[in-house]
Amino acid sequence: MKTILLVGGDRRSLYLRAYFERRGFSTYGFALQKGEPPALGAELLQKPYAAVLLPLPVTRDGQTVCTPLWDGALPLAELCRRLPKGARVLGGQVPKAFSEQLLAGGCTVLDYCTEAVVRENADLTARGVLRVLQENGCAPKGARVVVTGFGRVAKATLKALLAAGAAPLVAARRQEALREAEAQGAEAVLLSDFLKAPGRFDALVNTVPARLFSERVLRHCPPDALYLETASAPYGLDLAAAERLGRRAVLAASLPGRYFPQAAAEILGAAAESLL
């Protein structure tokens, strides 16, 4: 029987463990709940496995494994040191430097965050955006919602907003993106023009992982609007500035894991299993 060690991650990891057990794998887990002693990780990491499965994303700060369910910290460097030579490591969005460290230690590194995973994850993220809007008092129907960027998450979010009866405005850099958004039924504006004169809106969903909304820009944005940050660090919204200005800003990270952990785990499990 093949054995897998799951290390870190949000609630998706709990469902991932069940996914592999249903398929006949034996599983161990570490950093999946509060109170687990670090010594347990040191012990488990020394054993041979068919694979060591890290979360998506592997890390948020570039220094430690993403372990939101655990009250400890597992530095990437320590994980590299503890993994035995020849270990097969699977992770989502594995940082290049970390991957190089693992390879130098004799490990095999595989990234299960495939194009299909990204696409399906974007759809779940968009559904999560609607949930966050509703939970924060912004009913999508009839609401003017700005979506910044036009990558996969932005496109999926636009589709979800239109289906919910919202009045979306896409702010993007490329003219092709604006034409595509307009063809789908949204208003569209160049991002640079929007940042100069934001105008009125009920909510804003940022999908761009680069600072767009500085304190200066936020001062000209509606004070009663809802601001959602779905991008990764360093984030498009200056969250500290938003707090100082009294803006309602929500860090809406890992929405699939927060709202749809089982469905997200099925997606990740299938992708990871295909690499074993």
Automatic annotation (TrEMBL):
One Pfam entry name: DpaA_N
Gene3D superfamilies: NAD(P)-binding Rossmann-like Domain
Span of domain Dipicolinate synthase subunit A N-terminal: 4-112
InterPro entries: DpaA_N (IPR031629), NAD(P)-bd_dom_sf (IPR036291)
Superkingdom field: Bacteria
Protein name as catalogued: Dipicolinate synthase subunit A N-terminal domain-containing protein
